[in-house]
Amino acid sequence: AFSVVSKLLSQCKLDLLDQLVSAEVLQVLKEKIALLPDNHRDALAADIDAIMYTTEGDVRIYYDDDGRKFVSILMRFWYLNGANLPDEVPGETKVFQIVFGDESTKEKRHLLTANYEFQREFTEGAKPDWTITRIEHPRLLE
């Protein structure tokens, strides 16, 4: 899901995210994506083979006021991306670079991070669909 959604974000195909991303998050994304430079938009895309590491950041089970049961999982992803980003990005945070090949054919990749929160209702009879309720690409989508 992370790879598919991140690629759609980078391609500005937000209309295809309707069933995957909450309406609130989608509205914020529409505003932010429109203002991004091309290289930052390119850096949002995470090819499934370029995901280096994933970990869950937070797992919560909670009930709403109507007694419905929900599960929320915050996932953190580290992925390689070849977008043409500067060595230093706003906020004075270093972007890690990995060079593949020798000096004459080297390919520069950035190690980027993203946080996606997935939510699902577990009340009896509810649809078993997961929805993304938070999308963060630090220093890219701010």
Features:
about 140 residues; MAIP1 protein; alpha+beta; about 40% strand; 5-stranded antiparallel β-sheet
SSE inventory with pairings:
Blueprint: H1 2-10, H2 23-35, H3 38-43, E1 51-63, E2 69-81, E3 88-89, E4 93-94, E5 96-100, E6 107-121, E7 130-136
Antiparallel strand pairs: 1-2, 2-6, 3-4, 5-6, 6-7
GO molecular function, one term: ribosome binding
Protein name: MAIP1 protein
How would you describe what is shown here?
- It comes from Pygoscelis adeliae (Adelie penguin).
- This is MAIP1 protein.
- One of its GO terms (cellular component) is mitochondrial inner membrane.
- One of its GO terms (biological process) is protein insertion into mitochondrial inner membrane from matrix.
- With 142 residues, the chain is α+β, with helices and mostly antiparallel strands.
- It has one domain.
- Helices cover 20% and strands 40% of the residues.
- The chain contains three helices and seven strands; from the N terminus they run αααβββββββ.
- Strands 1, 2, 5, 6 and 7 form a five-stranded antiparallel β-sheet that branches. The chain has a two-stranded antiparallel ribbon with strand order 3-4.
- The two termini are 21 Å apart.
